[in-house]
Amino acid sequence: MIRNQVVIEKNQASVFERVVEAGHREHWMDEIQSINMEGPVRAGTKFIQNQIEGKRKTTYQGVIEKIEAPHYFSYKLISNAFDMRIGYELQGQGASTNVIQFYDVRYKSFFAKMMGTLFSGLMKRLARKQLDNLKEYCERG
Predict the structure, then answer these.
(1) pLDDT at 112 (0 to 100)
(2) pTM attached to this predicted model
(3) Residue 82 is part of a domain; what is its CATH number?
(4) Torsion over CA of 86, 92, 98 and 101, rounded to 10 degrees?
(5) What is the domain extent for residue 131?
(6) With helix as H, strand as E and coil as C, how does the chain read?
(7) 22-70: pLDDT as tens digits
(8) pLDDT (0 to 100) of residue 122
(9) CB 19 within 8 A of CB 28
C-alpha cells in the first residue's frame, strides 16, 4: 500500500470538494484526460476514467466506494490486470486540512504482480506528485 500525507492551507470543505468532484480531479491529476460520471457523486456511482500513461491512452472502469463528507472519499479503478483502491482522508485543522492519500493495488495475475513490483517506485512518485498537485491546486484557488 502507498500512503502519503500533506497539509493544505485551505479549509476542509473546500479541499473535500476538489478531491470528490470529477471536474476538479481532472485539473490536479496530470494523467487524467476525462472522468465521465454515470450519476451523482455517491457510493456505488460508476464512472469511466480516461488517462495517458506514458504515450499510451488507457480507460478504466471506476466506482465510488465510500463517501463521508467532508472527511473521507474512496473509489476503485478496475482493469484487466489489477483493481486499485484510491482514497483520501481529510482532517480539518482550523483554516488548513491534513490530507492522507492511499493507494492499494490487487493484481489479477502473476505477470501483473511482477510488473507492479518493477514499477512500484514510479507508482509511489506519481502518487506523491498527485498529492502535491492537489495542494497547489487548492491553495491557488
Answers:
(1) 83
(2) 0.91
(3) 3.30.530.20
(4) 0
(5) 2-140
(6) CEEEEEEECCCHHHHHHHHHCHHHHHHHCCCEEEEEECCCCCCCCEEEEEEEECCEEEEEEEEEEEEECCCEEEEEEECCCEEEEEEEEEEEECCEEEEEEEEEEEECCHHHHHHHHHCHHHHHHHHHHHHHHHHHHHHHC
(7) 999 999 999 999 999 999 999 999 999 999 988 899 999 999 999 999 9
(8) 78
(9) no
